[in-house]
Amino acid sequence: MRKINLIINIMAFGTMGFLYLPLMAVAFFSVNNTKYGLAWKGFTLDWYIQLFHNEVILQAAWNTLILAVVSTLVSTVLGTALAIGMDRFPWPRKMNTVLDLTLHLPVIIPDIILAAALVVAFGFLRGVSSLFEPGLFSMIIGHITFQVAFVALVVRSRLVSIGKDIEEAARDLYASTSYLLWKITLPLLMPGIVAGAMLAFTLSLDDFVISFFTAGPDSVTLPLYIFAAVRRVVTPQIHALSTLVLFATILLVGVMERFTRKINTK
């Protein structure tokens, strides 16, 4: 038994090291006072200072933030409404199966297939409106298409966990539909909604494939910029940028986790 526990612990620590040691190496080289090479030449923050004076990177960061925030807000509203409609409306069994399959498709389908489909769809829509030209608007639509499914799945799992007893009791006390939605259902769903929104936001920040297929010349995001920069040479500014994105993600997860815990304790 002890040998099994020892093997499990070794595998666990090995997996953690495999995941996080490269991230620590990136942070290490972001403060190393050398532009090339692996040798330690002293501590410096010059790469971070240069990063904040790089207009291209700042514009890419701004595009990334707009894309993530807007797509997350829209997908959270649509995903929550979709989850409530699928779980609380008495759909026929066959229709419910079709809806489940449709909901899971954006999650399991490869990104490259979804991106190619979006390119074809936007190609048709460009004949109707110039809004669907490659650019930030097309990227937002593309991100919403896969974020909605993730939000709906998270919110729906929360709906299943809280059950229908409380809502039925509210109906017995003559609660109206609007009162039931705003005063009972949504407050109970809030941890799931926050979790779904956080997942959608991080997926948007991290997305490369769909952004690559729908981006325009003026809508470069941080993943696209890092990809283009790494193809030439990995500079300390890229290490600094990656480190900042990592710490921003950790901070976001920590804040949202504490916010969700506070909601659950009310």
Task: Report on this structure.
It is a single chain. The protein has about 270 residues and is mainly alpha-helical. The protein has two domains: about 1-30; about 45-265, MetI-like fold (Orthogonal Bundle). It contains eleven helices and no strands. Helix 1 (about 1-30) packs across helix 11 (about 235-265) and helix 3 packs antiparallel against helix 8 (about 175-205). The longest helix has about 35 residues, at about 55-90. The chain is globular and about 70 Å long.
In short:
The chain has eleven helices and no strands. With 266 residues, it is an all-alpha fold.
Which terms summarize this structure?
2 domains; mainly alpha; 266 residues; globular; MetI-like fold
| CA radius of gyration | 23 Å
Low-confidence stretches: none
By CATH, the topology of the largest domain is: MetI-like fold
Please provide the count of β strands. Answer: 0
CATH superfamily of the largest domain: MetI-like
Mean pLDDT: 83
> β content, as a range?
under 5%
> What is the domain tally?
2
The geometry reads as: globular
How much helix, percentage-wise, in residues?
Answer: over 70%
Order of helices and strands: HHHHHHHHHHH
> Main β-sheet, in a few words?
none
CATH C-level label of the largest domain = Mainly Alpha
Derived structural class: mainly alpha
Would you spell out the secondary-structure blueprint of this structure?
Elements (H helix, E strand, L loop, with lengths): L1 H28 L16 H7 L2 H34 L4 H16 L2 H15 L10 H27 L2 H8 L4 H30 L2 H6 L7 H11 L3 H30 L1
Helix pairs in contact: 1-11, 2-11, 3-6, 3-8, 4-6, 6-8, 8-11
